[in-house]
Structure formats: C-alpha cells, structure tokens
Amino acid sequence: MEDKRYENIIYDKSEKIAVITLNRPDKLNAINMEMAMELKDALLDLEKDENIKVGIITGAGEKAFCVGGDISTFPKILANITSSYNWNKLGYDIHRLMERIEKPLIAAVNGHCLAGGLEIALACDFIIASDNASFGLAEITIGIVPAWGGMIRLPRAIPARKAKEMIYTGESVSVQEAARIGLVNRVVPKSQLHEVVNEIAKKLADKSSLALKVAKNVINYGLETPDIDAGLLMERGAAGIFAAGEDSKEGVSAFLEKRKPKFK
Question: What b/e readout covers 155-169, taking b as 16+ CB neighbours within 10 angstroms?
C-alpha cells in the first residue's frame, strides 16, 4: 500500500490502519497553513481508502502532540478579515471532516496538547494520553479565543464549568486531571503509548466496518440534536436497517457457532 509524502506531516498506511503524524517537532508540532492543508488532504485520503478501517493522529517527538497554531504566522493570518476567516474556515472544515469520516479516529497524545492541538484531539473519537501529557486552550493568554471548535466541543466533552475555567484562564490541566474529568479515555506510560493505541486500533479494525459507521454517525448526530426522540428515532432506524445486513447475520452465526466472525 503506497503512502503519500508530505512536508509537515507523515502519513503511513498498513494493515487497515492509517497513522497521521504531525511532524514539526522543532516547533512542538505547531500548525501552519501548510500543515493544516496537508492534514486535510491526508484525512480525505483516509476517508476514501476502503482498505483503511481506523485512523490514528499523533505528534512527532515526546514533547508535544501539538501546541496549536504557529504564532509566528499569526500576523499574516490576522492581517485582515478575509485571511482570518479563511484560516478559521479551514479549521472548521478539518474538524467537521474528522467527525464525518465514518471510521474511528484515535488521538495518541504525547506531551503538550494545547489550543489547536486540543481542538484536533476533541474531534477524534478516542483520546489516549501518555503520562506526561497536558491539555489546555491557551488562546486567551495572547488575546484571542479558540476558533477551531474548542469553545463548542470542550463544554460537550467535560463539565461546562470546568471548560469555562480552562478557556477563561488559558491554564493547562495535567493528564491526571484530564482523566478525572473525562477528557481522555486512558492514560498510559509514554513508552507504551503507541503500542497501546495500535492494539486498540487493531481491535476496532477487526469489527464490522458498517457497524462502526452506523455507531459513529448515530452518536455524533445524536449529540447534535436537542430532541431525544429524534435521536432515538434515528438510532432505531439505523439499527433496524443494519440488522438486515450480512455483517449482522455473520456476527450472530459466528456467536452461535462459537467461532470468530468474518465481517465483509
């Protein structure tokens, strides 16, 4: 399986799993326009590649997953309303794409996960963090506010009052606090991070791809609808249609026959 080559990210595909590595370790994987465009391109490839079942996003080096936007590029980005709008629209496009991709995405967080880096992690389905990780939305410390979804997604991921504290103060929380408030799925020793994430990804890759698509769509759209009956109706309809498919029949047969299912 041929891998695409980029300047600011590394994109590898093997055994049904795609790994996107933010690759500016000398800048703590800070996001410039080129990295953002490459990230979007890799995600579009991940979405359309039928051989890929699961995606992983991580950062190069041990110091940082990503510390957000490259502040040295901000004078140009914030020079006028048009350039600022285009930057924020690009962030919106990337994060909505991540949520709409019908495949599980796992953030493997090593080190600092700040500002736009946390916003990337929030758009993933799982966050697995190393024991040296930290999390924060620090934008307010330089006189701006989160613009890539942080003010919307963080209060949906953790208690709203805690999200307000993080956003208003710009202060980071430790990985232990992140686990306590439900921001991360799991904390592991940094030496084992990628091993653990790969094990999780392989487990997901063995599941029915269609079942994962249905589950991700129903959960994400359900979180966006304020009407629980509308969400339950969507769930019932999706589950009913899926139950008539080949993977459902294969899963039930395999269970009754005491064998491992072979999903198509």
Answer: bebbeeebbeebbee
